[in-house]
Fold this protein.
Amino acid sequence: MSGIVSDRRRIGCDEHGHPLVGEVDEHRRFHIRFRARDADIDELGHVNNAVWVTWIQDVSVAHWLTAARPQDRDRFVAVVLRHEVDYRGNVRAGDEVSAITWVVRAPRGARRDAVHTRLGADGRSSNASGPPSR
């Protein structure tokens, strides 16, 4: 298959197509870390809002790829249907951000509710919530 999409990095995966590495804790929350790159910084000197949305998508899909049964990983696609972000601090190039996501309640059909919390280098959170779909 050729086209624009096939030439891009798959959401939730690295540039080689491997799922981003995270871990699941004892409460079944998925944790992953991102490091802000120079290319992520906008003219205000901090991570651009569009990068935050990319990170939200990446953690959601990486969580799905980690939690899904192998036979379901390519049959279903995780997508974020709604974003709600509270920006509570600035993240600059080189800062590391922790992203945590978990399923709020059992899936309803092809839909599940999840919450994502990000902790910047200063320990302050930037919350995002919404119902990703499988």
Q: What stands out?
A: The helical segments are 49-67. Confidence is low (pLDDT under 50) at residues 1-5, 129-134.
